[in-house]
Give the backbone structure.
Amino acid sequence: MQMADLARLAGVSTSTVSRALSGSALINEETRERIQALARQFNYTINSVATNLRSGVKRTIAVVVPYEMASRQSFADPFLHGIIGSLADALTERGYEMLLSRMDADRLDMAAALIDGGRAAGLILIGQWRHHDQLNAMAERGLPMVVWGARLPHQNYCIVGGDNVLGGRLVAEHLLAQGRRRMVFLGDAGLPEVAQRYRGFAQCLRKNALPLLEQQRAAASFLADSGRKAMLALIDANPTLDAVFASSDLLAMAAIGALRERGRRIPADVAVVGYDDVELAAYFNPPITTVRQPIHEAGGRLVETLLSLIKGQSLPVSAPLETQLIVRESSQATAAY
Amino acid sequence: MQMADLARLAGVSTSTVSRALSGSALINEETRERIQALARQFNYTINSVATNLRSGVKRTIAVVVPYEMASRQSFADPFLHGIIGSLADALTERGYEMLLSRMDADRLDMAAALIDGGRAAGLILIGQWRHHDQLNAMAERGLPMVVWGARLPHQNYCIVGGDNVLGGRLVAEHLLAQGRRRMVFLGDAGLPEVAQRYRGFAQCLRKNALPLLEQQRAAASFLADSGRKAMLALIDANPTLDAVFASSDLLAMAAIGALRERGRRIPADVAVVGYDDVELAAYFNPPITTVRQPIHEAGGRLVETLLSLIKGQSLPVSAPLETQLIVRESSQATAAY
DNA sequence: GACTTTAATGCAATCGATTGCAATTTGCGC
DNA sequence: GCGCAAATTGCAATCGATTGCATTAAAGTC
């Protein structure tokens, strides 16, 4: 069923049908009601593909989740899901549709094709990975895009994210206050966000004369199993460690598993702190101390920023989102101290 | 940049450009290469919106996640994310794009608008909730759709899912073999999938002369907090319980938290079994015994079924996916027995 | 009653591509 | 050198909607 059919049924032209359904003032109220009734009766829905071809207005936003070919599992991180959910909400609220793509992080230019090809009005990329330059190049081409990640020098693209340096510092201060002294860091510092968390963490320790050595830091992707292995290596290299800062809650959970394998009690022997405050962090055993990133606000902010970029305002700058330490059991000082 | 511009640059008509880019045989090889080079140089990407308006072939599939207005958090379940990720993969592999929508479960007919409006070629609905009749009505209108959920009587729509009755039975047999006798069920039996898990579970217990009473069953949505509260109520109503079957891993995690609040040890005092085998189940403390649903295969199966439905074969019927008990620590018999 | 407004509707061009058919060019046979 | 087939290319209609402008009908004015 298309507009022409409906027009025939109603005995009018397609112009009239179009006006009846679009809320134009140039139409008789009775005619409008008659046509709308017919449309309902025959389940007619306006073809939005044709509509936005003609009108040029697109109401679709592409959300791109880059993954590294090697480990296509980036999708496993619950934080990522939280963001996607909040984006879905934020877009729906504003009357936009969401096109979700996973994409090889080395071929991010394919995301550009979604814009060039008219599929979407704008791009939201989740995670900048190691592709700062590629993102800059895309932005310079004038693609309407916003990235979830970390603010970096020489950054020509819009970014939305938390204050990772602050987050790292909050964790260090907290662990110091709990009396911990032999801390290790778990996470892949090749990723800008993680690097900043590490920087905030290490700076604060250094100020307190507690430098972090290279062997007190292990790379681990966002994958649970790689987190477990990296943690085991850290334990073996630093058998006396008394605290772990993991760069995501998922890694924190994996780390707790690994620590238990090696007979450490949490938090009595080792304190563990995560990052993100995913829902399950509070239900884990023990509940995990973590740095909260306001997931729901994140979606809204990403969408708002992108839409104002599309509307053509000058490059919107988004202040870092609120970043806050949530203290739970996994890092509390206990009777053991 | 659009095709006409490129045609002008190349000094040919748009017909020729179109043929050059689409791999038609009706074109000189040199011309094709010249045009393709120009296209690359100017970042020209064919406008797929216009293309499928003209050709009528759509390469977009809508994935709809219904949620209940009351608790818009259905999105929090990690199993759901697993399915979405596997759908994204399955669709990408086959050259389709994925339109993701959350939708009020009471207004599922809005999903129909995605098809009627030409946005998508087909519909994948995740979870049937309490809306069997609505889904039947949609299918009868001839909408190309596939639902993840449970097979029910009088079902006119395509369904893909695991064997929930079997899953429930496997859990019961396992717990009986572990010597557990006072079991409770945690989950909202108003949902068909959960109801079937309960049925398999209860039937097997009955066969062993261990009926489940009403107060040994508590409704709990897919939300962690509601799971915790329901579990607390179950404990109070059945202080001597020695096993819990939760209808999802998320609920199992919440249940474990609640049991600990009441001083129960897992699995020494109470065995806990979940459902789904989400990635974190293995990393939880203790690792959770659960019924595996093959998430990755699920996405592939949903997509295959939908595509063959679209191609117009008669209603494809999909056998239940493999359903398998994964035994981990949370339900092992221990020294306490 | 002729003339101007105003309201409602239809005509036809347009969005950016694809494709059947016609037109042109080239090559080949004799 | 003519005729015909094959190889390329262009023209114009088409997909399903929207919208500026023209048209028609009804109402209001003097």
In short: The longest strand of chain A covers residues 60-67. Chain A touches chain B through 51 residues (CB under 8 Å).
